[in-house]
Amino acid sequence: MSRAAEAIRDRVAVVGVGCCQFGENWDQAPSDMIVDAAYEAYADAGIDRPQEQIDAVFTGSIYSNKGPHECADALKLFEKPVTMVSNYCATGTDAFRCGVMSVAAGLYDTVLVVGYDKPKDRGVAGPSVVMSQVRDLPQTPAGWFALCAATYFEKYGAGREDLARISVKNHHNGTLAPNSFLKREITLEDALGARMISWPFGLYDCAAQTDGAAAAVITRADLASRYRDDPVLVKAVTVMAGPNPQKDPGNDFLRWKPTGWAAKVAYDQAGIGDPMAEIDVAQLHDCFTLTELLSYEDLGFIQKGSAKEHIAEGTFELGGALPVNTDGGLKAFGHPTGATGVRMIYENTLQLQGRAGERQVPGATTALSHNIGGHPTACGIAILGRS
User: Fold this and answer.
1) What pLDDT does residue 368 have?
2) CA distance 361 to 323
């Protein structure tokens, strides 16, 4: 066991999770969503005296201008250390990582992790974009990721229909998740016929940016039985930085380097040698359908260039060999940037405890979540397990 694995594996347990309704939550302030998610997590963990039972809070948000005080004020958790993390789309996983490390290091017994964002109050349809940097490549998220599509399509023979199948899958899964934003089945024809956003991405290739919050209560593994009899253990968690792929002369536009680096570290921490065989369910960062496709390969689930065949075979659908984005992912559940990583922890915890309802993966014992952030220039991965 490596030093990192010894420091993290099985030392920390998730004992409670919560998630508010994701969507265009015009009638809620950020504090309302934080309270909804956190108090569901409290109830899940059997916590009725959070002021006494929670030692610290780690929160993540991109769009808050109030810093950690917003979460502390909402939950009235004063006289506590409250830390805010910001790492673009990897924010939620990074906040979770900080909470896990603090417990594993012995600083705290029990902490609360909260990810949240409310971009709809900002008056824009999507993330902020910067168009003044004339020497850079297109400064929109769709533009960043679309740059990979033509290269991948030409080299491996994939096409828009392969991306559309991912969207159809995630829309279906989203109909099975009570707190998801988009509960609408779509057809292959719907996906292929939608208005173009940035070729090859049509409307249904792009994630829905929403408001939302998710929370997790984590504690020392040896204390977990105080809260519930089926805790979920943290097997691995890491965040890796990488170069801006738009400016990296070694970028081949066929992969995201930080995903490969983070996967290597996470698998070492968790003791995983064959991820396709040893991981039962995964939540991947499908900000765009191509991103999910590339992540199948970057995470070592399948060989580079083979995604087209696996998509056609249903490998990553519910009932497939490795179900991915069982709650609809960013595409259908929604993507409040700072909340997404914690929402993935929420879903994977439910899956490992057999509480995922119609979308349950039978017998799941190991689950992975994956966020990329920045251009993307970062990747966060968490692996949870039942034993």
Assistant:
1) 99
2) 7
